[in-house]
Amino acid sequence: MILYIRASKTNETALIERAQTHPKPLYYQADFLKQQLDIYLQKNQLIYVAQINPNEFVRWVFPRLLEHRKPKYKAIAKKYGYTIDSEDLYQCKNADEVFELIYGAMN
Q: Do residues 14 and 86 lie in contact, with contact meaning Cβ atoms separated by under 8 Å?
């Protein structure tokens, strides 16, 4: 089962802050990465990719990656799965409440 946990603005902010304070390697689609690298190079007046600080790039690109992925996640969930909201999930106190939330999304 595919379950899309749609993040609230508050949760998105927390995700972005976490990515900026603790950057980690991520997967990027080739077209998206090329476009973002070009923007980053120009914005930072760099000539080639080897000049980029990887952690700084991840901090910069993560909010863009999140926005890029949201419509894709939504479309996948609409066609193949279900969607729940992160705020609803965070209100769950135990596994049974999580299952009830998921069951509600399925109906």
A: no
